[in-house]
């Protein structure tokens, strides 16, 4: 009895396998065909699929959307400006820019340089007196440097400030550290200045800038703030 049961199970498994694989289709025993050949015929050819970078438009789509060629766009413009020029430099540059650049593409803007004050020690009688004062300042850890105004040499600057009041406050603070003979002086008075401004530099304007750059000498052009 057990052998018969095993034999029947084997026959059933074999029949099921033949049915699922379509081996019994000639006798009308087979599962329904899930595929739909007519849909396969309608499919777009996958081998023709192209993967393009973001923002890329295929040539045929571009032609369909815009059959007439559009004019090429100019490169983006950039605002540039120079460092501050003194009046003499500004006048020389004005002449060069007027001769080289289109009207309205440049301007010279007034940019006055403010005066500044320093906490000052000097003028010293000689180099020996200057070196002695430097040693004294190092001993109490007070920083110093040479003044930027030759008329104040030989002397020492203990700090540079945008206003006289700020310099006076610094001198008072230094007095509490043992600096007794310093005073406040104006190292530089306010002077007029000018800045070259080019609001829209693009590829078309670049060739005309060569004479302007030469006239600026060592003052480079920088992006506008």
What is the helix tally? 7
Q: Output mean pLDDT.
A: 79
Stretches where pLDDT is under 50 for at least 5 consecutive residues are 44-74
Calculate the terminal CA-CA distance, rounded to whole Å: 99 Å
H and E string: HHHEHEEHEHEEHE
Task: Describe the global form.
Answer: elongated
Strand order of the largest sheet: 2-6-1-7
Main sheet attributes: strand count, strand direction, barrel closure: 4 strands, antiparallel
Radius of gyration, whole Å: 43 Å
Number of strands: 7
Overall structural class, as computed from helix and strand content, comes to: alpha+beta
Strand-residue fraction? 15-25%
Give the helix proportion (percent range): 25-40%
Q: What distinguishing features does this structure have?
A:
7 strands, single chain, Alpha-Beta Plaits, alpha+beta, about 220 residues, four-stranded antiparallel sheet
């Amino acid at each position: 009895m057990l052998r018969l049961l095993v034999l029947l199970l084997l026959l059933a498994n074999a029949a099921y396998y033949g049915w699922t694989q379509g081996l019994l289709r000639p006798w009308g025993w087979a599962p329904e065909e899930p595929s739909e050949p007519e849909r396969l015929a309608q499919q777009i050819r996958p081998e023709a699929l192209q993967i393009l970078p973001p923002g890329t438009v295929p040539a045929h789509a571009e032609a369909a959307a815009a059959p007439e060629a559009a004019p090429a766009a100019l490169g983006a413009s950039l605002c540039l400006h120079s460092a501050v020029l003194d009046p003499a430099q500004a006048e020389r540059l004005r002449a060069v820019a007027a001769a080289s650049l289109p009207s309205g593409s440049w301007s010279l803007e007034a940019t006055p340089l403010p005066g500044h004050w320093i906490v000052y020690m000097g003028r010293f009688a000689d180099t020996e007196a200057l070196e002695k004062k430097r040693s004294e300042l190092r001993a109490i850890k007070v920083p110093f440097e040479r003044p930027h105004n030759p008329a104040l040499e030989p002397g020492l600057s203990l700090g540079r400030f945008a206003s006289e009041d700020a310099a006076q406050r610094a001198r008072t603070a230094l007095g509490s550290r043992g600096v007794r003979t310093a005073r406040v002086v104006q190292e530089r008075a306010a002077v007029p200045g000018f800045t070259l401004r080019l609001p829209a530099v693009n590829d078309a304007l670049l060739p005309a800038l060569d004479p302007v750059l030469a006239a600026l000498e060592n003052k480079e052009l920088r992006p506008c703030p």
